Every structure is written in structure tokens, then in C-alpha cells.
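This part of the workshop introduces the protein records we will be handling. Getting from the letters to the C-alpha cells is the skill we practise here. An example says more than a description, so a record of this kind follows:
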Amino acid sequence: MKQFATYEEENIHYWTNRASGYSGVNQEELATSQKTVWRGLISRRIAARFPNTNPKRIRVLDVGTGPGFFAIILAELDYQVTAVDYTASMLEEAKRNAGALAEKIDFRQMNAEELSFRAASFDVLVTRNVTWNLPNPEKAYAHWMRVLKPGGLLLNFDANWYRYLWDENDQAAHALDRKNLQDSDVRDETAGTDVDAMEAIARQTPLSRIHRPAWDLDVLRGMGMQANADTEIWKQVWTREERINNASTPMFLVEGCKVGAAI
């Protein structure tokens, strides 16, 4: 396996090589009912926080946009969308996937832990499967809090990815997932990916060892944010394929509101 000087270098290398394959996953989501499922879920959460507000007035930041799935569905709904990713190849895929909508989305290459936006720039911040992969997730949360306006909404969809590397019970559950997958008629979502490389990265990330979302709630509440978690959000958004592949690692939602008056 190739040796890297820093975790950052290793992580960028992995996601650069993964960009095309990951883009294919997003393209499938955009072409199926998954787009409708996710669009409805996110728009309802935003509308609940900003009732009777025209989407065109709401500024949304998509952190770790990858191939652009969230950015695209939000732009379709007429929100003002800014999307950031640390990997240039992911942004290239996102722009291609957005097509004509790319003109409506402000794509920027940026570190999720070091956002350069001014304080109180956004009404909503959304992110999916990003926090677990960060070397300094508490720093990221601090930046996300900073760029949200008072009354702003945080929607962080994530899971206890690669927890099985550290816990025997989780390891057994993961092994059962793999067996059930082999006995099923659905595809293996890890096919064609470098699992060894991803596990090497996961061993360096602090959150792969921690039971979440309790950690997230402690951190956000410690920063003064009102926060709660929905540990069954996966039941609303995951396909049958995702449920079989990742049965022991269900997706959760960490939802936060920055104290203050909303728009």
C-alpha cells in the first residue's frame, strides 16, 4: 500500500480515486425515487424551521458535497445553494451531474474544518457521511456553528461507519451483514472500492471509535446549540439495498438550531 506523509494527503488521494465511482452512486440516486425521498425530507425540515419563507431567500451550505447530490436537489427547489468539497475531482463530478443547474450552485473547493466564509453567512447547513471522516470533527462543528446565522439549521446525516474496527460486537454484526448480503439478491456496495484503503483511513479518524450520535449532541450543546438526534432516520431514506448492506450501521440525523431569531 502506498505510504502518505499525512492523513490529509491519504484522504484526498482516496476520494480523488473514488470520485468517479461515487458519482455513479449519486447519479443513480438522482435518477430514481431516492431523489424524491431525500428532497421531501430535507425540504420539510427546512420549512419547519423557516415557515412561510420563500426558498429563494434561504441560503444553504452543503458541506462535503461530493458528486453534488444534496446541492442539486436543493437547487431544484430554488434555495440559494453553496457547495464545498475538499477534493477537486469530486467538484468536477458535481458540476457535471448538476448540468444546467451548475450555474445556480456556487461550487467551491474548501476544507470542511476550515470554512472561509464570513460568520452568519447561511441559514441552513446540510451534510451527509462527512463528519465521521474528519480528523478534527469538533473543529468542524465550531466552523459550522460560526457560519450559520442565528436561528440557523444544521442537518447532519451520518452513521457509526467503521466502528467494527474497534469493537468485537460491532465486528460480529458487520460480519453478519456481509453474510446476509451474500445470501441476498442485492449488490455489494463495496464492490470496486478499495476497502483496505478506507479502513486504513478510518483507523486514523477519532469518530470511528466513538458511539454516536451522543458525542455529537454533547459537542453541539456544549457550543450553545439546541440539538437532537433521530436515530431512525434511515427508515425514511435508505433503500432495501442500503438496509441489507449496512444493517448494523444505521444512518442517524443530528439536527441543530443555532440560538437566536431566524429570518
